[in-house]
């Protein structure tokens, strides 16, 4: 997955000469929290957030301020071909809610935490009716080939397979197997026959 496939391209932008009040009015009208500041050719000049605007609102009442005075001039940006995982790590590391996507110096889109969350929810198959089987394993060998083989032997279609560390021993892991909605009982029975511990499963 790359940023291009998940970024917002229906963009609301503003010019650097706009006032603080004008920018706040745009954000309120469009129900957005980030606003790219661009020139007439859509080149990115800066970035402003609702928190930035609230921070200078009182000052703007005492003196005439424009976005050029308060915008972030060199905001963190990403590119359309950047892997979505890298964009997610950037947002998490900087603790920000979104950033501009720039291509050849031009504003191409905006990627937000909500966009990335939507992408990963889609990737995990949470928007489709599904059956989840949680499996706890410890030590080696790697049980994944057997797990997937058993699932497919019952005609199950695998949507995603995730691994997370389980509580307890360091060599213990949990795997979450998500299938297109199916009868999990025969799959669980076969997994347990080969000594794999299956946690409670449920349909979504």
Summed up:
With 204 residues, this protein is an alpha+beta fold.
User: What structural class should be given to the helix and strand makeup?
Assistant: alpha+beta
CATH homologous superfamily identity of the largest domain: CBS-domain
Total DSSP E strands: 9
CATH fold-type name of the largest domain = CBS-domain
Low-pLDDT residue spans: none
* Strand coverage percent: 25-35%
Q: How many domains make up the coordinates?
A: 2
- Secondary-structure element series: HEEHHHEEHEHEEHEE
State the major sheet.
5 strands, antiparallel
Q: CATH first level of the largest domain: which class?
A: Alpha Beta
Task: Give the termini distance in whole angstroms.
Answer: 24 Å
Going by CATH, the architecture of the largest domain would be Roll
Overview of this protein structure:
This protein is α+β, with helices and mostly antiparallel strands and 204 residues long. It has two domains: 3-120, CBS-domain, CATH 3.10.580; 127-203, ACT domain (Alpha-Beta Plaits). It contains seven helices and nine strands; from the N terminus they run αββαααββαβαββαββ. A hairpin with a 5-residue loop joins β1 and β2 (44-49). The longest helix has 13 residues, at 50-62. The radius of gyration is 24 Å and the shape is elongated. The model has no long low-confidence stretch (mean pLDDT 87).
């Amino acid at each position: 997955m790359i940023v291009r496939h998940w970024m917002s391209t229906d963009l609301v932008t503003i010019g650097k000469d706009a006032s603080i009040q004008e920018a706040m009015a745009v954000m309120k009208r469009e129900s957005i929290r980030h606003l790219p500041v661009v020139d007439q050719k859509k080149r990115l000049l800066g970035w402003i957030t609702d928190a930035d605007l609230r921070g200078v609102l009182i000052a703007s009442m005492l003196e005439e301020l424009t976005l050029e005075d308060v915008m972030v001039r060199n905001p963190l940006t990403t590119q359309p071909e950047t892997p979505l995982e890298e964009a997610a790590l950037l947002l998490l590391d900087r603790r920000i809610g979104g950033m501009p996507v720039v291509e050849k110096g031009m504003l191409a889109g905006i990627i937000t935490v909500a966009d990335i969350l939507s992408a990963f929810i889609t990737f995990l198959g949470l928007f489709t009716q599904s059956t989840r089987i949680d499996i706890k394993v410890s030590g080696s060998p790697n049980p994944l080939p057997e797990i997937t083989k058993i699932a497919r032997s019952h005609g199950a279609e695998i949507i995603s397979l995730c691994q997370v560390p389980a509580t307890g021993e360091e060599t213990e892991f949990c795997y979450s197997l998500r299938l297109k909605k199916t009868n999990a009982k025969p799959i669980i029975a076969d997994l347990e026959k080969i000594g794999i511990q299956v946690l409670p499963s449920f349909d979504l």
